[in-house]
Amino acid sequence: METPINISQDKYSVISKAILKVLTPEPIKFGELVTRVKKEVGNFPGSIGWYTVGILRELEKERRVIRTKGNPVTYHKT
User: Fold this and answer.
1) Residue 27 has what DSSP assignment?
2) Torsion, Cα of 61, 15, 48, 71 (10° steps)
3) I want to staple 74 with a disulfide (CB 3.0 to 4.6 A). Which of 5, 21, 27, 44 is the partner?
4) Residue 3 contacts by C-beta under 8 Å, 6 or more apart in sequence?
5) How confident is the model at residue 78 (pLDDT cuts 50, 70, 90)?
């Protein structure tokens, strides 16, 4: 079972909005997603990659983001 992570509402809001803004219907790799999120949020107090992983999981549960299975794993908007 996954251990839940706690993310402040402010950080969740910033990263989730950035993820949803930079994702398109076209699948992209995680590294590219993090690069786009970094450009979108600019100066951010923390590891953008770490927050992106946690928030992606939540957005997947909400069915707002799709993670493709395979190698490499990619993400895109629903």
Assistant:
1) -
2) 40
3) 27
4) none
5) confident
